[in-house]
Design a protein that fits this description.
Largest sheet: 4 strands, antiparallel
Mean pLDDT: 85
Radius of gyration: 14 Å
Low-confidence stretches: none
Structural class: alpha+beta
Helix content: 10-25%
Number of strands: 4
Strand content: 15-25%
Distance between the termini: 45 Å
Strand order of the largest sheet: 1-2-3-4
Number of helices: 1
Length: about 80
């Protein structure tokens, strides 16, 4: 069996942003991109310390569920 190569969506035109709660100390933080050209309904998340590394990709609905769960637990 041959190994398959997984290629994700093109995020090269994504506008990434950090949380306002992340601070400027360079700690553990993620960046989020929404409204990505050519990828409607996609939310991408990556490690801010490794912007060239991999990104996780979610649907807008999945991201909303995640955010609502975080907010309901007062984690923000």
């Amino acid at each position: 069996m041959e190994a398959e190569t997984l290629i994700g969506p093109d995020l090269s035109r994504a506008a990434w942003r950090k949380s306002s709660l992340s601070g400027g100390s360079g700690g553990n933080c993620v960046e989020v991109a929404t409204g990505i050209p050519g990828l409607p309904g996609v939310v991408a998340v990556r490690d801010s310390k490794n912007p060239a590394g991999p990104a996780l990709v979610f649907t807008s609905e999945e991201w909303d569920v995640f955010l609502n769960d975080v907010k309901s637990r007062n984690l923000l």
